Amino acid sequence: MEVLKKNIIFVGGKGGVGKSTSASAIAMKSAQAGHKTLLVSTDPAHNLGHIFSQTIGGKTTEVSINLSALEIDPDIETDKYIKGVKENIKGTVQTSMMEEVHRQLDTAKASPGADEAALFDKLITIILEERDNFDKIIFDTAPTGHTIRLLSLPELMGVWIEGLLKKRQKTNENYASLLNDGEPVEDPIYDVLRTRQERFSKAREILLDGKETGFIFVVNPERLPILETKKAIELLDNYHLHVKTLIVNKVLPDNADGDFLVRRREHEKQYVSMIKDTFQKQELIYVPLFSHDITNKQQLKDFSTYYEKG
C-alpha cells in the first residue's frame, strides 16, 4: 500500500465501517517496521482503548513498542481553548469589562462548534509540533462529515483570518493617522491573528504535500458507505485533498459457507463491482470480514497483512 510511506496519514469513512481498526492496524504495522508512531483519535466516540484493551484517554500513552496513542478529549481541549482565548485578550479589554467577557467566553464553551474549534486547534498543534517527536502520525478520524469539516478548516480559517487581518490593519492605520501622528500602534490582537494565520498556513501546506501526507477512506461493500465515500472524496478534491487509497473492509471471504452466506456473497458482488467502477483512480485494498472482533495486537498484525495483498 503506497500510502504507508507517508509520514502523516488520515483514515476516514462512514461510521461503523472499521476506521479505528484500520487506523490501528496501520499504526501497528508502522511501529513494527521500526517507525516511532503516534496514533491519534479525533473521533469523540473513541475506540482505540477498546481495540488495545487499555485506557488511553487525553494523554499520549504507550501501547506497544514504538507505538503511542492519544484520544483527544473534546471537553479538555475546549477548556484549554477558552483559557487560551482569555490569555490572548489580556491587556486588550478594560479591567472593568474582564469579568463579563470571561462570563461570555465560559458560556461560549457550550455553544455549537466550540468543541470543533478546540479539536481543530489540537489537530494543528499535533501536525506542527509532534512531527519532531514521531516518525509517523496516524489519525483515526470521526465519521465522514466531521472529517471533511476538520480537514477543510485550514483553508477556510486561513481565508477568514486574512479578512480579519485586513480589517484590523485598516483600523490601526486610521487610528495611527488620527491620534498617533502616523506612528504604527502596538496591537496584540493583530499579532495573535497573524500567529494563527501562520500556523494554519503551515498546517495546510503539510496537508497538501503529497509526499508528506496521505488520505485513506475505509468502505464496506454496501450501497450507503459507497455513496457516502464517493461524495466525500469529491468534496475533499475541492480542497485539493486527494484520497488515493480505499480499504474495502469486511468483504465476505470465499470460504464462508452456508446458504445464507452464499446468498449474501452473491448480493455483495454487485457492490464490489460498484466499488471498482466508482473508484477507478484509487488503490483498492481488500480486507475480509473476520469471524471475531479485532481486540488485541496480534489480531491487528493479522489484519494489517492484507495491506500488502491489495
Automatic annotation (TrEMBL):
Signal peptide: none annotated. Gene3D superfamilies: P-loop containing nucleotide triphosphate hydrolases. CDD domains: ArsA. It holds the Pfam family ArsA_ATPase. Residues 7-305 form the ArsA/GET3 Anion-transporting ATPase-like domain. InterPro entries: ArsA/GET3_ATPase-like (IPR025723), ATPase_ArsA/GET3 (IPR016300), P-loop_NTPase (IPR027417). Belongs to the arsA ATPase family. This is Arsenite-transporting ATPase.
